[in-house]
């Protein structure tokens, strides 16, 4: 999985701060050192790492203790925000020309995934915006490249303009654009030639195509698996072509993360899309904030903290925490929690926001669907007060009665009680200092 090593190291770096009421200079220094090493090991550009660590440290030192947030959470929040900034803050949409066609020139080294990505983008525009794209095959050096684009075109039902390998690429593009005008295509993709390395001849050819086509968008396709090389490639292409955006491919592989994290900072050009597989549908808009959360392995903890603080009053949270610590958390508390959580938004989204929870074996079969939550509530409503406050009395005959009362199968009732017990146990452990962000949920 992408970013696995980085995620683990960043989490470990920040775990050191868990449960600390106050972070000393030494704690912060150690943590920042670990974060620095984690990023360097993930092949993030050295200067980018240096700036990042400096900013996080300055912010951490200057940060006031936020209401209800412990220092570890504050640092996580700062790291999350700075990672997001490093990747460009917000998503950047495709440029669109006021008059048709919008011309999108694609460039990249051989094997980066250029042709595949042309198909993915054309397919996306076609299916989502009802666009009528035309794809121009301008890689005349490899006959297979033209065949590949033609095959992709057939697959997604998008026309391909090609003139074989004997015509000059600039001329192919000129004629292709003329055809697009004639046929009123609203998008034109130019699939240009790639090389194994940047060379001057290729760059000159691309510059000539750019001069002729005046593209609204020049997208550079780079392979995330190549780490710092991807960044160097991006820089090389950008110097010559002044690209308008980057598409990072193969993020479904086990890339360490360096390219995703450094490209924007090094080139100043936004990553617009990411490729996450070989299928035509495996293309996603690049959201820096979501990527940061993903890299931190904690879903969107920041929103969770904010939401929890908004929704949960301190006193209530304190009482609940005490009940968990005393191990007297019961079905009434559970119901209450579910209602609190439901107020915050979709359950699966909430669960994903809790660091460590997504991978927690105890939560693996947890019922995350809002529909399931309603079923769970129905089951609890069918319990007597005694059963709710003292779940140990739930013997088989009581469970059968509850199943009949709630209209749910008895197996489901059994499963839910089992999950409740697992959750109770886990929360009790967490409350004893086993940080996993449950504190955030409990508003502590
Ligand atoms: P080009 O030489 O730059 O045009 O590269 P291609 O489009 O031919 O892609 C090279 C290889 O990478 C092909 O086997 C593609 O299926 C594969 N590929 C492209 N994008 C992705 C991606 O996002 N994920 C994965 N796993 N493979 C990809």
TrEMBL record:
PROSITE patterns: SRP54. Composed of three domains: the N-terminal N domain, which is responsible for interactions with the ribosome, the central G domain, which binds GTP, and the C-terminal M domain, which binds the RNA and the signal sequence of the RNC. PANTHER family: SIGNAL RECOGNITION PARTICLE 54K PROTEIN SRP54, SIGNAL RECOGNITION PARTICLE SUBUNIT SRP54. Belongs to the GTP-binding SRP family. SRP54 subfamily. Its EC number is 3.6.5.4. One of its GO terms (cellular component) is signal recognition particle. It comes from the Bacteria. GTP binds at residues 108-115, 191-195, 249-252. Involved in targeting and insertion of nascent membrane proteins into the cytoplasmic membrane. Binds to the hydrophobic signal sequence of the ribosome-nascent chain (RNC) as it emerges from the ribosomes. The SRP-RNC complex is then targeted to the cytoplasmic membrane where it interacts with the SRP receptor FtsY. Coiled coil: none annotated. Residues 270-283 form the SRP54-type proteins GTP-binding domain. One of its GO terms (biological process) is SRP-dependent cotranslational protein targeting to membrane. It catalyses: GTP + H2O = GDP + phosphate + H(+). Signal peptide: none annotated. CDD domains: SRP_G (cd18539). It is an enzyme of class 3 (hydrolase). It is found in: Cytoplasm. Pfam families: SRP54, SRP54_N, SRP_SPB. Keywords: Cytoplasm, GTP-binding, Hydrolase, Nucleotide-binding, Ribonucleoprotein, RNA-binding, Signal recognition particle. This is Signal recognition particle protein. GO terms for molecular function: 7S RNA binding; GTP binding; GTPase activity. Part of the signal recognition particle protein translocation system, which is composed of SRP and FtsY. Gene3D superfamilies: P-loop containing nucleotide triphosphate hydrolases, Signal recognition particle SRP54, nucleotide-binding domain, Signal recognition particle, SRP54 subunit, M-domain. The gene is ffh.
